[in-house]
Amino acid sequence: MKILKKCRTPSGKKSSSLELLLTMLALALGCALGILSKWLDELTITEGMVFEDLLEILDLRNVFSRISVWALAALIISVRSRTPLRASVNTMMFLGGMIICYYGYTIIFSGFFPAYYMAVWSVLAVLSSIPAYFSWYSKGTGTFSIVMSAFILGFFASQAFYFGRWYFGLHEWDSVICFFAAAAVLYSKPKPFLLSLVGACIAAPVIDWLTPYIFGGL
């Protein structure tokens, strides 16, 4: 599409072997984080153990159970890919690796086979290639880039803050950090960034309202 080509074009050209290596690294990262996440789920905290006390203070078990951390990793992988197609592939491989290893750990070490959740999250991992493709353009220029950045920041804001007609508050600290990290990733120039923030303020309450209908029951 002409509007997308004006927004952002691939810079330079990398060898196919390097592209494959980067995709494999995305897969390996997803696998590693999937195992870490499930290990934290299964970990029994022993009082007095400094390392485990630190894990409890950081609350990493719950951090990795929230969508903001995974969405931030997927965003970074997407915008740092060389082309929108590579962004789709790399993001899908990252999330696919996470799901395979998370549920593989569950089956092998926990003796539990959550077929429904595996199926649903596997489908979502495949479908992630679509938003990843368009997210790549959020680091471009022009109206489409601003709109994409606004929706992305709106999503992170919906996870970091809660909204009401007369009130506003913060969710968990890690989701707030992810919001500011996503803003740093997407920042390019002051004016388009400010426009994206304005758009995010409009999009966030709507996304917050829709989220239970999209992810409810998972």
Helix-strand blueprint:
Layout: H1 2-7, H2 16-42, H3 50-58, H4 60-63, H5 67-80, H6 84-110, H7 115-127, H8 129-135, H9 143-160, E1 161-163, E2 168-170, H10 173-186, H11 190-215
Antiparallel strand pairs: 1-2
Helix pairs in contact: 2-6, 5-6, 5-10, 6-7, 6-8, 9-10, 9-11
Task: Tell me about this structure.
The structure is a single chain. With 218 residues, the protein is an all-alpha fold. The chain is built from eleven helices and two strands, in the order H-H-H-H-H-H-H-H-H-E-E-H-H. The protein has a two-stranded antiparallel sheet. A hairpin with a 4-residue loop joins strand 1 and strand 2. Helix 6 runs antiparallel to helix 8 and helix 9 crosses helix 11. The model has no long low-confidence stretch (mean pLDDT 86).
